[in-house]
Task: structure prediction
Amino acid sequence: MQRFALWLYALATRLATPLLRARLRRRAQAEPAYGQHVDERFGRYGGALPSLQPQAESARLVWIHAVSLGETRAAELLLKELRPLLPGMRLLLTHGTATGRAAGASLLQPGDVQLWLPWDTPGATRRFVQRFRPAIGVLMETEVWPCLAAACRHAGVPLVLANARLNEKSRSGARRLAWLARPAYAGLAAVWAQTEADAERLRSVGAPVAAVLGNLKFDVVPPPAQQAQGRAWRSAAARPVALLASSREGEEALWLQALQSNRPQTQAGQAQAAIKTEANGNLQWLLVPRHPQRFDEVERLCRAAGMTVSRRSRWTAGPEAADVWLGDSMGEMALYYSLAHVALLGGSFEPLGGQNLIEAAACGCPVVMGPHTFNFAEAAELALQAGAGQRVPDMAAAVRAAAALALRAPDQARAAGRCLAFAEAHRGGALATALAIARQLRQPADR
Result:
């Protein structure tokens, strides 16, 4: 039954290959990186790639898959602890998104290679594994694919899931497709979960949970230079700064509606004036969209509401006077969190699961989160318990809560201190995970 199920799934992914190519072409129109190295998506590699077959035990190849930006940042923390434990290791780093690949380029050392993860067909995954034959495969957080897991089992490559999480929605989906998902999870060599709740959900779908090691994203150390610059600009700002952090599509429109609803008008036709007045009132708003292809869209949205906009990419001596500051750069979230007195957590005001709030806490920036934080449920709950964040039912309430905190300096200072204490209390997951990978590598291969 399992073989037949995998055969059906493999047939479906092969038939969907033309659709994937068409989708990549469409995405490449907005993000050119999706049109580059397309053959890698199908397990085909040109002669320009160096051989990654290790010449010595100390030079073994470690493959880490970090699908997008958040997982790549987690991989960075893991590599910082893993490389000293495995001197001479070579890294094969794979991704699924353009933002992940762009961020991952900075993690490479001489001899490392970066690729797209192959599409989950038997042929593409087999060619990938046979071409590189890593000593171990480390999937970050959630990425478990049936054909890829089967190819690794066939080749004797131990495949592990690190910093693993599984929300209730994903567990329900895995249970509905148990005939396909359970063999994939059960075929993993080890799973190291973020929380006990994640561990319970993972076990219920057949995953071999070896330990609960915490969320290694708590080990993030914000770049000191970014923090210093953000704090200097915050001190020079004319008003307290409120940040809409890593906002997703639809949330900026909700924010604009909230500005209007929080300032009711007595005359018709004054919506734009109301929004502009609110934005340019007691708070300085800073918007940082999650995806770079949306920077221009968000600027147009704000200007259509009658606001002036100053983009980070055009700042020279610092933020320019404007109704709204737009953070249109990548890799500077520590600067933005340090610049802000309070942050609204993007992805939590639409049913998208929320963005990672840990970096905000590490920068001492209190967060206001909406109702949807299922992607980071445990971290969100811990932040609430620690007083490092607060939850509100909608965007209008979030705007009011942000103003109430940012405009009360003593309350804001206490909340910032609780954020730093919260982040410090949960560190250590990256080293624990690196040690677990090193132990896994010492186990005899099951071939």
